Amino acid sequence: MNYEPIEKPKIDSMTVKPNLADYQAMRGGFDWREIDAQLDWLDGGGLNIAHEVIDRHLKTARRDAVALFFEGKDGASEEYTFGDMSKLTNRFANALTGLGVKKGDRVFTYLDRTPELYIALLGALKCGAIIGPLFSAFGPDAVTDRLQDSGARVLLTNPRLLKTVHEIQPGLPDLERIIIVDRENCGYEFGETEVGYAQMMESASDEFDIVGTDKEDFAIMHYTSGTTGKPKGAAHVHQAIVGHYATAKYVLDLHPEDIYWCTADPGWVTGTSYGIFGPWSNGISQVVYEGPFTAANWYKIIEKYKVTAWYTAPTAIRMLMKAGEKVAGQHDLSSLRYLCSVGEPLNPEAVLWGVKAFGLPFHDNWWQTETGCIQIANYAIQDIKPGSMGRPFPGVTAAILDESCEEELPPGEEGNLALKAGWPSMFRTYWNKDELYRSKFKGQWYITGDRAKMDESGYFWFVGRADDVINTTGHLVGPFEVESALIEHPAVAEAGVIGVPDKLAGEVIKAFISLKDGFIDTPRLRQEIKQFARKKLAALSCPREIEVLPGLPKTRSGKIMRRLLKARELGLPEGDISTLED
């Protein structure tokens, strides 16, 4: 499929100039130390993410700016300035210190997206702890795996989730304290190892001297799932804030006057890197929404808070597409000036739909839990090539390597996407799995596990995960290309493509789709969709079979779980499904 590049898109209705004024110049002379100089290091040369995110702004006019606009699931709203957040995070740091938490201890959260979650994560960083945010939708096995592996000493949760915590607590010998956030005043009676968040905070001082953390001290770990085995904790250090700050400024194009909304939960790396660290290190006001997803709900948030910069996921965009432009047209969304997407590659149709629905394209970007921050992106000052990951961030070296992961391939050839090691937010290990960590590197290269290609202009194009690529009649077919063609059909809301074993072809392509509202699954419709795909794809890339499902299995970060589709199709073990969306 060939789409015409979208010329440098309109940036805003406020005539805000893009931050990255001259991308090519920065590519030629960028040094991460230039970003280091923009940060506010601790006395003695230490670096602490919470200081960069909150306390550095106490010296500026941003002290009294709203850091957090919170919209609860009941519609109630709260506001917290950077000054408020400084005092509250200090209190939590003091409370943790009073519980005996010391530098290097693991403090995890298992909590809904409320202000206490953000206060706790940053307060824990101030006292030198290593934080680990967990999705509140996790079941007992998922929580157990992560708390056991990390050796977490403290867990922050709420009364609704306590049943799960109590169920698994006997198997968590390292867990010493459970802090309970009771926003609804349930009148819960605390157990022997339990303490109330409100009571802790009430008696704690709002003055705290941040523990002297070094840039290479561990700060946060996010657990990422695999096809087999237990989840693995990608551990990042305080120096990661250098990448968060720079990419939020230059990729998300955040400006002081912006009202920003990242729809990701902090249980996903995007929800911390760009739902906490990146925007707040730039002093940006942001919205946190606790309520459920519907197109109308989301548009109401944008309208109410006059959101200008919006970062969301492809799955959410496709769900908005499913609801249609009519719903969008019922709300005043004129405040929007810049849209970004991450989680899995954004199909070209979704990029173009943004222009239709909002007058703005979505800027896709690529990174991983392991990379810590955005590595490849479509920038505000560059033409967008719909379906492309974009170009590498200044200071990042990306390449396509051959099958041995030793030689770089020329433009146009598909291979292994790799990054030259050494960027600030690169993960430093998998917790308790250092051998597995080392296996991800080949010489100077971090091997991402993604297949991609680069064009003559330096734009990168995602093909698929290395274990997702389909080998049919000796030809390698990336599922993303097939999925993108399928969702261009007006009836298709989502698509997931896998390879199914075949005696003659090795593998044949099977597609799973869900339909937009108003369409009914019939043999005739499936045949029509097949014919539609044949007009856009090479014959060998066309699905042999199409199956319609009510919805496709996705992680909570919005990635379609192709491996789960394949496991269910072939009757294979499903592996770790702890991140599966409910």
Number of strands: 27
Number of folding domains?
A: 2
Which class best fits the helix and strand makeup?
alpha/beta
If classified by CATH, what would the architecture of the largest domain be?
A: 3-Layer(aba) Sandwich
In whole angstroms, the N-to-C terminal distance is 33 Å
How is the main sheet built? Answer: 9 strands, mixed
Pick out the low-confidence regions.
none
**Chain oligomer state:** single chain
Chain-averaged pLDDT: 89
Can you tell me the CATH topology of the largest domain?
Answer: Rossmann fold
Tell me roughly what share of residues is in helical segments: 25-40%
Strand adjacency order, main sheet = 2-1-11-10-12-13-14-15-16
- CATH hierarchy, class of the largest domain: Alpha Beta
Provide the β-strand percentage band.
15-25%
The rough form would be described as globular
CATH fourth-tier homologous superfamily of the largest domain: ANL, N-terminal domain
- How many helical elements? 18
Alpha-carbon Rg, integer? 23 Å
Description:
With 582 residues, the protein is of the alpha/beta class. It folds into two domains: 33-454, ANL, N-terminal domain (Rossmann fold, 3-Layer(aba) Sandwich); 470-570, 2-Layer Sandwich (GMP Synthetase, Chain A, domain 3), CATH 3.30.300.30. It has 18 helices and 27 strands. The strands form six sheets. It has a nine-stranded mixed sheet with strand order 2-1-11-10-12-13-14-15-16, with helices on both faces. Strands 4-3-5-6-7 form a five-stranded parallel sheet, sandwiched between helices. Strand 25 and strand 26 (506-515) form a beta hairpin.
